[in-house]
What does this fold into?
Amino acid sequence: MDCLVVNGGKPLSGSITVGGMKNAALPILFATILVEGKCVIENLPPISDVTTALEILQAMGAKIHMVNKTTIEIDTTVIRCGSAPYDLARNMRASYYVLGAELGRFRQASAACPGGCDFGVRPIDQHVKGFESLGAKVSVVSGYVRCDATESGLKAANIYMDVVTVGATINIMLAAVKAQGQTVIENAAKEPHVVDLANFLNACGANIVGAGTDIIKIKGVDALHGVTYAIIPDMIEAGTYMMAAAATGSRLTVSNVIPKHLESITAKLEEMGVGIEEHDESVTVIPHGRLGRVNVKTLPYPGFPTDMNPQMCVLLCLADGMSILTEGVWDGRFKYTEELIRMGASIKVDGRTAIVEGVETLRSAHVRAVDLRAGAAMVIAALTAPGETVISDIYHIERGYECIVEKLQSVGADIHRVTMADVGASANVS
Ligand code: EPZ
It folds into this structure.
């Protein structure tokens, strides 16, 4: 099994370019199920979740041509409803976007109950509420979610989300885009990737207004046509590298970003005493001595992103004083703190709150990636810790970070990917 070996304690310098946003690419790829004709999708991040999504679509009958590493042509004209492979779909939460897209196109849908990072319970009751409001009958049968609106058809509805949920907002949008009449989603998620999906669908001929606000109106149309569309840059990948710079006291430019999407991250780093220079499509992190302590609460966009929780925690571990990190979205997102404690961090977790006492430095250790963003946080922690840290279970990291080793090596990090056998021979971990 592969792992990452990092010799930390050295500053980084230079510039890292961010790729397309995973959480925009996944819904947009599944949204092509709704489109009659060929789409060209550009700036796709070459990560394993995108590969999985393409494998699912191909298995369903989509014709896919890789134009280059980040551009594909896809034509879903002949896909078969309900044919998403169970084992592929169950491992990736975003596969449940097949439900909204199939419902929107075929008036019926079937896909495996979703998997994804383990943050405790990850219900889909709001997705079901939305589909039922549009007229579908929804049932869970032997691990599959099945939706059927073949008799009633899909009719517009006013849907008030009980919680702000990215996935359900997206899935309802997908189901409603060809429904009869105008559907209104209230208390909708406002994330940039929700807006990116709406922009893609509108480019295909949909009629969606209000994406990015908490009220989204979707007027059903008869057909969607193919389009060429580029995915927005990944704000979480950008934020991760900003945090790596801040944690290692490095001056680093992160390019191919939309600064507005990073506002809450920039604000928190500035509150900790880090300088941030904003340019049109890049940000430069400028360290100013030891990080100051802060309190952080993760919230739906435009709040501080939950997907930056673990990365921010590493900074709080090194800050001067005690900080409080509160998780405002997920129940169980603090599993990774046990790994940071192995590296000498001082963290006490109580439910959705972590109390972090800053220490001078973290120490190298054998640690593991417990999920995607936690894995990225372990890389940041390892970059700050003098000596050799080994990170296992790195498949989590590769789901969402393209070429993280090469990108960090390009700015001076001593980081390598090795197989476990090699580590047994050479690892010299304290
Ligand atoms: C998306 O997950 C992202 N995944 C997650 O990022 C991210 O953490 C999350 O949004 C929040 O921003 C993808 O986009 C593929 P939610 P999703 O539905 O859609 C509750 C990453 O690192 N809820 O917005 O599954 C839920 O329990 C991943 O890239 C219900 O109660 O998240 C949670 O508390 C990890 N009922 C809250 O809403 C529902 O039917 C937000 O969940 C659905 C959700």
Observations:
- The chain has a mean pLDDT of 95.
- The radius of gyration is 22 Å.
- The pocket of EPZ is lined by residues 22-23, 26, 93-94, 117, 122-127, 163, 165-168, 189, 306-307, 329-330, 372-373, 400 (CB under 6 Å).
